[in-house]
Amino acid sequence: MQLLLPTIILSSISSALAQSVSLYVCEHKDFGGTCSNNLPKDNHCYNLEETNDFLDNQISSYRVSGGCCVFYDQYGCNMRDHLFSATNRQHGKIGSWHNDKISSIKCDKICRFD
Ligand SMILES: [Ca+2]
Q1: CB 102, CB 73: distance < 8 Å
Q2: Ligand 1 centroid from CA 99, angstroms
Q3: Of 4, 35, 41, 64, which residue has the fewest beta carbons closer than 10 angstroms?
Q4: Which residues form the signal peptide (predicted)?
């Protein structure tokens, strides 16, 4: 029992470090309409056309936790199509200049722009 406690602490620390960023996105403001937590893998470009969520050019609210996500207007996560990035942040009503535009997303522990 004396050895158990340090093991529990160590394993909970390592699982926290290994935990991926999570993203929740919705079709309408205030997390309404069709939503998805169909998560992009870390540092993987996630094209919304490839999913069955019908959220391409539809996302109006989002929640990022455990890291950062970068949102793009076109497929392929190219810097020229960059809309905005969010670290551990949520927004119930994306501004009109970004609303219904997101077409690809890349998430990771910290944001990378490439
Ligand atoms: Ca778009």
Answers
A1: yes
A2: 9
A3: 4
A4: 1-18
Please report, for the domain that includes residue 65, its CATH number.
2.60.20.10
Å from CA of 41 to ligand 1 middle: 20
Distance (angstroms) between ligand 1 centre and the Cα of 94 equals 14
Distance between Cα 21 and ligand 1 center (Å): 23
User: How far away, in angstroms, is 103 Cα from ligand 1 center?
Assistant: 4
Question: Considering the domain boundaries, does residue 14 fall inside one?
Answer: no
Number of folded domains that form the chain? 1
Measured in angstroms, how far is the CA atom of residue 26 from the centroid of ligand 1?
A: 15
Structural domain of residue 64, as residue ranges? Answer: 21-108
